[in-house]
Amino acid sequence: MFKRTKVTDGTATGQGPDAENWDGKEVGFRKKSKVPGVMITQYIEKLPEGKSHPDFTRKPIALTIQEGKFAFFKAIVTGDPKPTVVWSRNNGDVSDPARYQSKYDPNSNEHTFEMPHVKPDQADTYKCFAKNEYGQAMVTVVLNVIEVGFKMTKAPQQQAEVANCNFKKVLKRRSKVVPKAEEPEKKEGEIDPKFWELLMSADKKDYERICAEFGVTDFRWMLKKLNEMKREREEEQAEFVKNLSDLKPIHINADGTASFELEFDLLDPSSSIYLYKDGEMIPYTKELGDKMKHCLRKVGRKYIFSMRDLMPEDAGFYQLDVEDVNMFSTDFKMVDFLVKIQEVKAMEREDAVFECVISAPLSKLMWFGKNMPLEQGDKYDIEVSEDKLIHRLVVKDCMVVDKGIYAACAGIKSCNAWLVVEADKGAPKGKKTARKTTRAGGSGTDLQKVAQEQQQILDKEREERKEKIKAAREAAAEAAAAEEPEKTADSGAGKDKGAAVKVERIDKTSVAATTTVAGDSGSGHSAGKASGGAKQDGSHADAGGGHSAGKASGGARKDGSIADAGGGHSAGKASGGAKQDGSHADAGGGHSAGKASGGAKQDGSPADAGGGHSAGKASGGAKQDGSHADAGGGHSAGKASGGAKQDGSHADAGGGHSAGKASGGAKQDGSHADAGGGHSAGKASGGAKQDGSHADAGGGHSAGKASGGAKQDGSHADAGGGHSAGKASGGAKQDGSHADAGGGHSAGKASGGAKQDGSHADAGGHSAGKASGGAKQDGSLADAGGGHSAEEASGGARQDEPLADAGGEPGITSGLSDIHAIRGQPAELTVKMNTDCDGAWFKDGEPLKSGGGISITKDANIHKLTIHSCRDTDSGLLRFVSGDLSTEGRITVGDVPEFDEDDLHKFSKPVIVRVGQNAAFKMPFQPQESLTVSWFKDGTELKDGGGVKIVREPNHSRLLLRDCLRSDSGEIKIQLKNPFGAVEATSQLIVLDRPGPPEGPVETVETTSSVIEIKWNPPKDDGGSAVTNYIIERQERGHSLWTKLGDVSAEKTSFRDRNVTHGKKYSYRIYAENPQGLSDSLETADSIMAGIMILSGPPGKPKVVSTSKTCINLTWTPPEDDKGVPIIGYQVEKRKKDTNQWLALNAINEPIEDVNYAVKDVTEGAEYEFRVSAINESGAGDASPPSAMACAKNPNMRPCFKDPEDFLVVRAGNSVRVKISYEAEPPPHITWLKDDEPIAPWINVINTEGMSQLVIPSSKRSDSAIYTIKAKNSVGEAFFDVEVRVTDEPKCPGPVELEQTVYGKVAVSWVPSPDQELDDRLYYVVSQHDSNTRMWKTVADRLFANTYTAHNILPGIEYHFRVYAKNDMGLSDPSQSPTWGANSNRVPISSNGVSSMEISFERPPSILVPLKVHTPPKGYQLYMTCAVRGCPTPNVSWYLNNTCINSDKNYYITNSCGVCSMYILRVRENDGGEYRVVAVNSLGKAECSTKLTVRD
């Protein structure tokens, strides 16, 4: 296995930074194979020249096979030196030769691993290793075995395994997701923790799918809670990693492994990384290898987790943690094939379709063709249904080269099937046929139905989860209401339905004392958080509102005081505080995009959720007396928090344009602590002192840190500062001295200090940070004051002082801004000061005074400038000055856009178009600057794009609507808008179309034997023009023709049909018509019968004609009483034995017209009874008596073979496959014999239902024989012989010799081919070439002798001869003769002193080549040949059993130059016997004979 390191921190085996290789050896060099899924290890870095490591050119294919069948894997390997191939399996050994056989075929270079009669325990992952001295190649393949029947030993075996199993020790470290075995009992409807873990690692596009899977429907609540959990998780992750990105969920790779990946940087490289599956830690290695299943590799910043040798138990919930923080979670699911791909037989140039159905939605399957992955392209179409359950592969334009095995893979599950492409025999030679438009293949089942059933199962599971969650929530709400009936919670202007009211914790920096005191947090345009302090007296704490982007929350109190969470335009959350008395807690409202929630009270006082333009968070402090706690608003972008006090002093957390946090120091006396404002971006803090001295952390424009001191006397410690970029913090005091964290324009943190006396602590300044009122224990006031703060500084209300002002120096509280005034209309500009002081107005630098259409007035601290009638000359820059303060704004005078009256009248006329036409609108106007033109349809603005075209010119605008639909009808509006106002003009678009269908349902007003009256309603949509009339059509049941009955006017919506026949049923459809055309039809839901229903009597009892395992044939007699209504057909029903339900085999509207029927919907071995009903126009009548029980099984039958082939020729080295189909009942026992002897063990026999197959993997010439199949059952037995001839192309004949003994004739002889003795079907072909024609021509064929006599050999011409040997495989190479020329090769004839006239060539007949023995099978062709010589030419006769057959037409007899042949087209039984050839001439007689035996 692997080395185990000592684990002291709970690290699992194989995990953590100390994990090592399992064997400590060098792995070698990884090489990539061209075949996917092959792992190659090269032992040396550089290979010698001409040498190579092993590799697979063909890898084994995953196999799913039925138990008891013949399973095998094939592989082809390469490598130099030749590698050795070893097979193994993951769980078990392969040493048993009876179960595992490894073979090698040197001709095809195939390594075969065979498992005859495969069993279920052999299902496993198998490995094939190819090794030589330079490397190793390895590939894995999965074998799935389908069990057949119930195994009696299976249940006891499983119990024994459970009793004897050794459970693994529980690891110390555990995932947050509890393993299934240790999960506590889940409450009804409780959400699985995996739901949140998956969401935090998933893309947003997957949220909907995950929610649907876990039954979550409240998306708003889910998103809110998810964001909160993500923030917490990101904070935890930030402690160990950074730059976490590129999360990819687990998926199956092309090489059969599964992996997921993510990218991050470890802050500490020694941090441990852990992997969990379903909550349990799993070991892994950091290097790829053959001995560990899981691997975690690092490539740059990317971490890749991979898993090999996938099995069904690998499905689960995987998590990757760094230390104890989860980084990534993903769910690995296994899917199965409900419908597998089937074998496809396609014609050449036809499309082939493979299709399957899986058990769970999957966006993509992996398709393979001949071991290569397939992708969408010109050759292949990969189709997926909308529900992602049906997957198809279309092989376009099939050619013969596309033939092979195709596979679909879904994880570890796969299925494969053959594609067989048959050549188009009718295609013209040399020309490419046209591509066919048809498709071959398909599963043969209703895939849509299977997918719908599976989808219904999945939907049902989701709905059940939703109902459980809903019920659990309702139960939880009822339980909460029962436990706390005295508590109420008011929710105002919010959408957070499921969240409880939260009481904000006071920030650590705002509480310095041990007790809770009062605090005010001022308002302002804050985007942060303004929180009021906590009080125990009657003081005042305000959490103000105003344009804050944070959260405003009222404080909690125990007395009758008021806690307000002010508001206004808040995008955050404003929540009122909790009270225990009858006081008032307000969470202010107004234009809030977040949540404003009133606090919870224990008395009868109201709790209001206030508003304000706040986008932040403002929270009032908690009080225990009757004081007032306000969380002020304002446009603050930071957080304003007052300091903590224990006396009646004043703590102000001022506003200001600070982006940081302003915090006052902590005090224990009556001194004053101010956390001032200032544009500081850093930290200014007062120093620590123990005497009465003064410590200032002052500073203007400081980027460092200034700290006020801490004092124990009455001295003063200031952390001052204007324009400081540091942090200004008031010091801590124990006496009545003053500690100020002062400052203007600070971007740091200013907080009011904590006091125990009645001194004053202010956190003022232009701070956009955090200003919070301090906490008090008396009736003093805590103010969140401010200067030019983006918050609003609010004075608190006290019980020990009449008023506290947020005042001081003169200032402008409301200044000028740019305005646009309409020409001729009045305009008013107002400036508001915080004190009553004088000011002056200027326009473009020139002072202004009342008069000339301008009035300047002053009312206390409000200054107004009024222009009575604006003119163009009034445009300019206006400025108001008061002392050192000033504000300015620009006024621009102009006009509102206008339309010309004539153009407006034209535009107001409606535009009428037909469906499909374009509608155009045009509106002229006067050119203007800053003019915006907008077009609207029914109040919705139109944008340029799609079917909408908007053209904007300087003096007009056009709108074009292309291809209008009826739904485009409506109001069209154009709007001209500039800074001074807007003007609109409207028109109407009317799109004419044919009307909608009449409204149904069709009502039957009256039905008699002669009249049917129907009624309907007008259509909802008349298409823009009135309906003129209705058209009615009728169809008689059982007919396909619709007949028009007539039409009625639009005012009448009923029709009486008087041309009906009693008992017959009719269907009607109605059309509405207007000038644009006819509508779609409204059709009656059911046929309407004329008169009452008349049903037929019962037919005769059905009789069973014949049965088989797939079909039961029935017949019956018509009913004796048809009630006078013609019978149109019958309905057949079946009932299975021991059941009470009758099932109809055909619908009533699909009657069986004959009185017999073949029932094919039966199960083999089951018993059924049947009954029949007669169908007429009124429906199905009474059922007949049931038939006798019939069993669906084949009748006992003697084995018989179906169209077998009795002869097979195979080239040596190729595999031999002899397929014999048979019929028999019961199934027979099959036996194969070779030449009446048992077959050799390497010859395989594969038996399936109805077919037996004999397979010789690699044939040799010695395998030529007569193979006999024997099928035997209880009824009888049958035999059949198949002659298998294993041969090869013959070797050429030996040397050719020429001899002339007679003028004009040359005897050609040759040495026989070496294959002549091995192949009795070998014969010779002779070709001749002469110098005259210079062409080769065949002069003799099918010669079984080794001589041939050439005729017409003329002098003066050169001749050449070639002799070929030929058998079933083809021709051999030729043997060339020497040249034969004029007088060159003439044989001299010696006269020996005798004159030539005395030489005689006459001789009696002789047999040169005798007849051979033949034993052909019945029906096979036969050649019988012999060679005869003699002079004069003898007369040759053929005899069968002493009967001359020369004139018999069943035999074709020839004699060519002494070669006598007889040919029988199909051998019959009576052709057997003794054959004799008799040659007779004047000098004598010669004969030869042989026997012919005809085999069955």
Gist of the model:
By secondary structure, this protein is mostly beta strands.
Report on the structure:
This protein is mainly beta and 1496 residues long. It has six helices and 108 strands. It has a seven-stranded mixed sheet with strand order 29-37-35-33-39-31-41, with no helix packed on it. A hairpin with a 2-residue loop joins strand 53 and strand 54. The protein is elongated, with a radius of gyration of 52 Å. The N terminus is likely disordered.
Percent range for β-strand residues? 35-45%
Task: Find the structural class using helix and strand composition.
Answer: mainly beta
Euclidean distance between termini CA atoms: 63 Å
Quantity of strands, as a count: 108
What value does the Rg take, in angstroms? 52 Å
Low-confidence stretches: 1-26, 150-174, 486-807
State the share of residues found in helices, binned by percent: under 10%
The largest pleated sheet is described as: 7 strands, mixed
